[in-house]
Write a structure and sequence with these properties.
Strand order of the largest sheet: 1-2
Structural class: mainly alpha
Distance between the termini: 26 Å
Shape: globular
Helix content: 55-70%
Order of helices and strands: EHHHHEHHHHH
Largest sheet: 2 strands, antiparallel
Number of helices: 9
Strand content: under 5%
Number of strands: 2
Radius of gyration: 16 Å
């Protein structure tokens, strides 16, 4: 479940957002859905990924709600965990100094780069890359080795994303 600040207040979950989150959000440009779609398309093409797949990930992760934060701490449109943000915003990678996970452009840049990396590591297997995106690469590799069970959410996640490709006029099968 994802909560906007407004929903968090209504449902008594405001504690999900730290003071730092709230300050970031207050100082972050609100992007329109068409701007978000354009950024997703541009970033996907940069890494040779079908843009429909990235748009479907965003639909599945946040339903295009830019300021979402999960109970687990994932943030923004592509629901990226802080450790992933830190990893990819490093100067040797995307060089996003003080990356803002609620900024649509930065969030999508990091999310797409991360997903492209997972696709490469899993030899183009979209279902494996989606599962690793959802539960973390380390957890997914442990599952593949028989050392860990997958949560129901992760087992269903690739199908949910692939079903959401229909929304954007193209069905991706994997």
């Amino acid at each position: 479940e994802f909560w906007t600040i407004e929903n968090a207040e209504k449902k008594g979950r405001k504690r999900l957002y730290s003071k730092e989150d709230i300050e970031l959000i207050k100082n972050t440009k609100k992007y329109s859905k068409s701007e978000i779609l354009s950024i997703a398309e541009q970033e996907a093409r940069k890494y040779g990924i079908n843009p429909v797949l990235i748009k479907a990930i965003i639909q599945t992760e946040s339903t295009y709600k830019q300021f979402n934060k999960s109970r687990a701490g994932a943030r923004g449109l592509m629901q990226i965990m802080p450790i992933t943000i830190k990893h990819w915003s490093d100067p040797s990678r995307l060089n996003l100094d003080n990356a803002n996970p609620f900024d649509a452009k930065q969030n999508i840049q990091i999310g797409v780069k991360h997903f492209a990396d997972l696709l490469k590591k899993f030899k183009g297997n979209i279902r494996d890359a989606l599962s690793a995106y959802n539960c973390g690469e380390t957890n997914y590799r442990k599952y593949k080795k028989g050392q860990k069970n997958l949560a129901e959410e992760t087992r269903r996640y690739p199908t949910r994303v692939l079903n959401n490709t229909n929304i954007f006029g193209e069905r991706i099968y994997a």
